[in-house]
Every structure is written in C-alpha cells, then in structure tokens.
Amino acid sequence: MKLFSSVNDVKDVPALVAEALQLKQNPYAHQHLGKNKTLSLVFLNPSLRTRMSTQKAAMNLGMNVIVLNIDKEGWALELRDNVIMNGTTVEHIREAAGVMGEYSDIIGVRSFPGLKDREEDYSETIFNKFVEFCKVPVVSLESATRHPLQSLADLVTIEELKTKARPKVVLTWAPHIKALPQAVPNSFAEWMCRADVDFTITHPAGYELCTDFTKGAAITHNQGEALKDADFVYVKNWSAYEPYGAVTGGNEDWMLTNAKMDTLAPAAKVMHCLPVRRDLELSSEILDGPRSVVIHEAGNRVWAAQAVLKQMLETL
Ligand code: CP
C-alpha cells in the first residue's frame, strides 16, 4: 500500500480488519519491518488520539517517529501556486513536503477543511499536495473530507463486539455549538457501505451528507425509526454540506439519552470518535454507562494504524 486516504485505497477490507485484530493479539511480531525506517507525523491541526495511537503503532513495528506540529512549530506554509510570496507565508508546500520526504519513509498528514469553500475542501488540495510533493507513501491522519484511520478502527470495533453476523449500525447526527467538518461521518458512511452491516444514517433535514459517501445506506430524518433495534449507534455532529459549513441551531433533542436508548435500542453499543462535548453532543449518563464503547474504540486506533503501516512497510 502506497497511499491510505480512503477505503478505496484498500484492496481487501475484511483482510485489513483481520490483520488489525491479529496485531492486537501480537503487537511486536513484525518489529523487523520498521527497523531503521522513519514515520513522520505532520499536523496542521490539533490531535490527541491520532497522534498517540499512530506513534504507538509505529513504535510497535520498530519504526522511529518524528512528530511535527507544523501549524505551531514550522514555518508559515504557502499552499497556493502562482503567488508572489510577499505576505506572511515563508515556505511553499512544494519545498516543505519535498524536504519532509527526504527525512521519512512514510508520512502521515492531518489537514482539516476550512469549511468556507466546498470545492476547495472537497478537492483535498492540501492533502493531495503533500502526496504529490513528498514522494513517499502517505497516510491520512484526517483530511478535509475523510478520516480513514478512525473509520478502520470503528469497523474493527464493530467486528470485535458484534453479536450477530450482520449487525444493524446507525450513524446519528448529534447537536453541537460549532461548525464541525463532515470528514468523520463521510468516512464512516463510506466504510460501512463497504462492510457487511445493515447501515442507516439519520439526521435532521438540512444535514444531508454528500451522496458520494452514502451510496447503499438507508437515510431518514426520523431518529427514532432509525435507532429501532440498532446493535451499534455511532454518534457524531457535522455541519451542513449545503449551504456549506452551516449550523442551523436547535435540534437539541437529537442528543442520545438512556431513556431514548432503553425504548428503542436497549442492547445497542454507543460509539463516538472523540473528542466529545458531554451533555451537548452525547449525554454523560451514556458515556459513563455500560452502553458506551468509546474508550475501547479509541484503543483500537492503535491496531488500525498498525495494520496500515505494516502494509506500507511491506511495499517499501
Ligand atoms: N478521533 C480523533 O481523531 O481524535 P483526535 O482528533 O484527538 O486525533
């Protein structure tokens, strides 16, 4: 594997999930693969889980790791072509990415969307420039439109905890006070549409995701109908795709509570990628109760990242 930016970069999804679960059982079996190899993790935005889990995964494989918070510690990057750099930017992404490639065998990049210009975000300009100019294999640590390491960890979690061959999985929109990207729900939808699950998306009117990511999913504005008899409920806020980045306000009653779950899906496990705003996006009673698998899910980020890095190391 030379690029991990979406489910479309994976030849065999069930095999990758199985590999992650094998690595969970035997984390240090492939340390020879990473010996004298360097992973550079480049962050243009904050992170806790992606940063730590990917670093841990690389160390399990025997790799050296460099972490660069380029937004805080690097030179101000110019991302546009054909501009005279007489403003605040100091280094062009062409040189910056090229130089990072000289120091790295694999690069991971996190670059969030601006949520202002949909065409620019959905063309993945920044992530694609890293891929083009660094000339080494690249892993997405969350880009403008997708978060594939998160989605792989989510699928690993479902595979591990499911109690029936084809579980019902529901992605539900949740309230928030800020405009959040669509990367996590886009990516989750895209992976679930490729997995052997019965998949439903529910959100208030106005929060339709881009249909490129939801082909094959059932979609409803009726949260109660969607939640009925769910085995897994994936909670996430996102801002509107049209008008792009909008937050309409209201819909506070979309937050999951135990009362809602007791009535509609008493046996369901509740997932969230984290970070989560308690009692705004998801109730404390669920997060602190037996339904929540969010910590287990975050733990699986290590094995997802390790499976991807292992496949990349095998092709170096
Ligand atoms: N879920 C996730 O990607 O968490 P971080 O933003 O903390 O990395």
Automatic annotation (TrEMBL):
Q: Does the keyword Transferase apply?
A: yes
Any idea which positions bind N(2)-succinyl-L-ornithine? Answer: 142, 176, 236, 277
Name the Pfam families on file: OTCace, OTCace_N
Catalyses which reaction(s): N(2)-succinyl-L-ornithine + carbamoyl phosphate = N(2)-succinyl-L-citrulline + phosphate + H(+)
Q: Which InterPro entries match?
A: ArgF'-like, Asp/Orn_carbamoyltranf_P-bd, Asp/Orn_carbamoylTrfase, Asp/Orn_carbamoylTrfase_sf, Asp_carbamoyltransf_Asp/Orn-bd
Sorted alphabetically, the keyword list is:
Amino-acid biosynthesis, Arginine biosynthesis, Transferase
Q: Binding positions for carbamoyl phosphate?
A: 47-50, 75, 110, 147-150, 273-274, 301
User: What sequence ranges are listed for the domain Aspartate/ornithine carbamoyltransferase carbamoyl-P binding?
Assistant: 9-160
GO molecular-function term, one example from the UniProt record: amino acid binding
GO biological process terms, alphabetically, are: citrulline biosynthetic process; L-arginine biosynthetic process via ornithine
EC no. given is 2.1.3.11
Domain Aspartate/ornithine carbamoyltransferase Asp/Orn-binding span(s) in chain numbering:
184-311
The pathway it acts in is: Amino-acid biosynthesis; L-arginine biosynthesis
Q: What does this protein do?
A: Catalyzes the transfer of the carbamoyl group from carbamoyl phosphate to the delta-amino group of N(2)-succinyl-L-ornithine to produce N(2)-succinyl-L-citrulline. Is essential for arginine biosynthesis.
Q: Name the family.
A: Belongs to the aspartate/ornithine carbamoyltransferase superfamily. SOTCase family.
PANTHER family from the UniProt entry? ORNITHINE CARBAMOYLTRANSFERASE, MITOCHONDRIAL, ORNITHINE TRANSCARBAMYLASE, MITOCHONDRIAL
- What's the protein here called? N-succinylornithine carbamoyltransferase
Gene giving rise to this polypeptide: argF'
